[in-house]
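Researcher: Structure for this, please.
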Amino acid sequence: MRTMTLLDMAKNFTKAMAIWARSGFPMVEEAEFKKRAKICSDCPHWCDCARGGLGRCDQCGCTRGKLFVKTACCPIKKW
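Model: Predicted structure, token format:
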């Protein structure tokens, strides 16, 4: 998988938020969030220093905020 451009990330974000909105904005439970966060933190593509300390995946562009979204999934199939 190639590294995402800013335009790719914007398109993916818009699509993901539309799906989330149509689903009624469901959020994951705390245990699921922690599971996702651990997987991302352990991933070699994750950078904690990006986005003002929120973190970002250098491979797919996901940020920690996506971990709360129940309808979201990892584009590189980690969770």
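Researcher: Any notable elements?
Model: The helical segments are 6-22, 30-42. The chain has a mean pLDDT of 86.
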